[in-house]
Amino acid sequence: MREKLTQNGFDEEAILKKLRKVNLEEKIRSWPAEVCGNTLEIPSHIIDTFKSFQGIRNEVTHAKNRDHSIYVDLDRMQPALIVDAVARFIVTTLSAKSHPFPYWLLGWNYVGFNGNPAHPFEGNNLNGFVHSLRNLGIRFNNYGSDIIWEQKAMSSMAGYDELKDILSQVPIDVEPRDTRFPQKPRLTRRWWDAEVTSIDMA
After folding, report:
1. 8 and 87 assigned to the same domain
2. What is the mean pLDDT of residues 38-50?
3. Which of 65, 130, 141, 142 has the most CB within a 10 Å radius?
4. pLDDT tens per residue, range 102-123
């Protein structure tokens, strides 16, 4: 939104007012369409998830209840729901702009930068992720090129759901080490887990 307002000639005071004064629900509901410049509706369950987590956050930081009910809410929280809502919000917005979503929204990340098996590394869809999928035994046919595959498989919510489902069925947690390039970063679903990132599957 800041980028769009800057391009439209708004000064810093007007930009800050817009960024700070609009509530979260309104930002989620209307800003994607405004930024994309076309009709875009964010699914209601995504908005509801954001509102639910914001309500818990607000009660933790600015308590209004005079009892201990917040602990019940915290016990019932499912953090994966907000992670999924954020990913779906980003995919929905990017797809409206005909941009592919980044692979890391699927929850998998690279480790092994500079030969350190635990050092995180941000790759990209074409020079890294698509090749890592092949190393994990995942094959896609009839696309003709990796660029066309990215445009078709990583530019929609359907593509996101399909890749998420495919990756959920991968029987290993980390991409096998490439003996030809032993210091190449590896894709893993458990990038925070030292036991996984140190696995040598050569």
Report:
1. yes
2. 89
3. 130
4. 999 999 999 988 778 888 889 9
